[in-house]
């Protein structure tokens, strides 16, 4: 038995605070969980998407390949078109770069500015990348362009998968 | 810890008098259910306020997913109810709470009526209370359309027809409510949404403030 006596007033204060807190939590918990649901929803791994482009059409020069897929955005389903810049490296591996600039997310294009041949160019803040996706020092981007996972189907059609960090830029 | 934070703020801003003005006042014996259990009838006003707070909170959270557009309204409601965690509960709170507010408000009105608490000098508070009642009915009417299902659509058709039966200015009221003389559609939904989440809640907060300031100023009416 403790020597510290709990006064009637203290006891009532604790009890009322506890009960009130419990009720408030019961009210707020569903609403907060409801609001933060998108943060807690696990991201589903995507499938490979066929681009309709044959690998025979590819060369060592990056070419623009647009591909469409059905995007489910909560209650809204739509056809979305994405772009990849695709080329074959020295050992004939398919390289597909994501054109989203690593500076602030604008879209880059190959030789997008005439004064910069053999570079990816971002028009927003003049960012430049080499063919491998490596960012050119002294321009705004701080990281190389991301890549798509690539796969070639049995009949030679290029398929693209998830966007992954660049592994070829040195 | 909490006491220290309170003291720190109080030392600078002297918040205790404000806090006492709001929360620290005597509850007369005749309205205290601990003395006479039948005094629970004096709780209905507070319960109305409590349910109103739940309505405001759950409504705020629902607008995180709801879209007031005829293409997407129903689908967004379906999505938030079936795909989002606790969607059923949050929408359920708003759905059942809407009816509960009306019930509590009605019981509160009966108590005020039968205890004669509306009499001089509290007539103005009765008038403000009746205005709150109308605002609440308006919230119920406009909220009913928002799920954009068949029940919502036809209930609103009927409601607008009733409003349009007003003498002389019926047609103007119809267009004002529906946004179009003939169609109950896209413009009706956005109007009802705006009225439901901005205009009427704004009016409600003002009226409730007046209601509460008056009751604190005049005090609760005496025993029967």
UniProtKB/TrEMBL annotation, chain A:
Molecular-function GO terms, alphabetical: 2 iron, 2 sulfur cluster binding; metal ion binding; monooxygenase activity; oxidoreductase activity, acting on paired donors, with incorporation or reduction of molecular oxygen
Record has Transmembrane as a keyword: yes
SUPFAM superfamilies: ISP domain
The keyword Electron transport belongs to this UniProt entry's keyword annotation: yes
Membrane-topology descriptor: Single-pass membrane protein
Regions that span the bilayer: 12-32
UniProt-annotated location(s): Membrane
Pfam families cross-referenced by the UniProt entry: Rieske, TM_PetC
GO CC term, one of those recorded: membrane
InterPro entries: Rieske_2Fe-2S, Rieske_2Fe-2S_sf, Rieske_Fe-S_prot, TAT_signal, TM_PetC
Subunit structure: The main subunits of the menaquinol:cytochrome c complex are a Rieske-type iron-sulfur protein (QcrA), a cytochrome b (QcrB) and a cytochrome c (QcrC).
Annotated function: Component of the menaquinol:cytochrome c reductase complex. The Rieske protein is a high potential 2Fe-2S protein.
Similarity-based family: Belongs to the Rieske iron-sulfur protein family.
Protein name (record): Menaquinol:cytochrome c reductase iron-sulfur subunit
TrEMBL record, chain B:
Primary subcellular site in the record, as a coarse category: membrane
Keywords for the protein's UniProt record, in alphabetical order: Cell membrane, Electron transport, Heme, Iron, Membrane, Metal-binding, Transmembrane, Transmembrane helix, Transport
CC annotations in GO: plasma membrane
Domain of life: Bacteria
Cytochrome b/b6 N-terminal region profile domain ranges (all copies): 5-224
PROSITE patterns assigned to the protein according to its UniProt record, in alphabetical order: CYTB_NTER
Keyword Plastid applies: no
GO biological process: respiratory electron transport chain
Family matches, as InterPro entries: Cyt_b/b6_N, Cytb/b6-like_sf, Cytochrome_b_N_euk/bac, Di-haem_cyt_TM
Metal-binding among keywords: yes
Record's bilayer topology term: Multi-pass membrane protein
Entry's transmembrane regions: 39-67, 96-114, 126-146, 193-215
Location(s) in or outside the cell: Cell membrane
GO molecular function: electron transfer activity; metal ion binding; oxidoreductase activity
Cofactor(s) this protein requires: heme b; heme c
Function of the molecule: Component of the menaquinol:cytochrome c reductase complex.
Assembly mode: The main subunits of the menaquinol:cytochrome c complex are a Rieske-type iron-sulfur protein (QcrA), a cytochrome b (QcrB) and a cytochrome c (QcrC).
NCBIfam families listed in its UniProt record: cytb_ExtP (NF040969), PRK03735.1 (NF002990)
UniProt protein name: Menaquinol:cytochrome c reductase cytochrome b subunit
Lineage: Bacteria, Bacillati, Bacillota, Bacilli, Bacillales
